[in-house]
Amino acid sequence: MSDATLTTPGPQGAAVRLERVLPDPPEVVWQALTDRDQLKAWFPCDVIVEGGLWRPGAAITFPFGPEADNVTLTGEVLEVREPELLAFTWAEETLRFELVPHDGGTRLILVDELRPGIAARNAAGWDVCLDRLAGRTPAQDAWRAPFERYTAAFTPELGPQEGPPESAQ
């Protein structure tokens, strides 16, 4: 696991970067990023791609369950280069997943372009999600310690950080 870092600001004003080294090759990790059933195991909500095909321009819906007030976000597929790059919008954010072969496995790099006030919250959330992707089972409150660490690290550069949603507290 590596801590999230701030990168060159994106169009939203901030971007956080997280990395994980996974034991599986990029082709296997690609399936975890693009197969709806596999996404359910680690992504924070369901992911429904228009026509079931990851192609630039395809619409995406992200329905959350009752624990998140049944909110549904929308997005669009921006880039697809199997098995090396997947980028899409997630409401107001842009998520970019890069897969790089690494010692028989994969170095996964996630960059989340977002508004500055939610950088710590999202970085902590992605920490938990990427732990699930790596096959770990994080504790229910696993986001708390990273959130506090990221808030302390990001506030001087980005300003005050918003806490997690009420449903996570």
Describe this structure in words.
By secondary structure, this protein is α+β, with helices and mostly antiparallel strands. The protein has a single domain (5-168), classed as 2-Layer Sandwich (Alpha-D-Glucose-1,6-Bisphosphate, Chain A, domain 4), CATH 3.30.530.20. Helix content is 25%, strand content 32%. An eight-stranded antiparallel sheet has the order 1-2-8-7-6-5-4-3, with helices on one face. Strand 1 and strand 2 form a beta hairpin. The longest helix has 15 residues, at 119-133. The two termini are 24 Å apart. 29% of the residues are buried.
- Gross morphology: globular
Q: Which fold name is given in CATH as the topology?
A: Alpha-D-Glucose-1,6-Bisphosphate, Chain A, domain 4
Q: In which order are the strands of the major sheet placed? A: 1-2-8-7-6-5-4-3
Output the number of helix runs.
Answer: 4
Give the overall pLDDT as a whole number: 92
> By CATH's scheme, which homologous superfamily applies?
START domain
Give the amount of beta strand, in percent: 25-35%
Into how many domains do the coordinates divide? Answer: 1
- Quaternary arrangement of the chains shown? single chain
**CATH second-level architecture:** 2-Layer Sandwich
Q: Termini, distance in Å?
A: 24 Å
SS-derived structural category: alpha+beta
The count of DSSP E runs of length 2 or more, i.e. the number of strands, is: 8
Question: Mind telling me the C-alpha Rg?
Answer: 15 Å
Q: Which stretches are low in confidence, meaning pLDDT under 50 for 5 or more residues running?
A: none
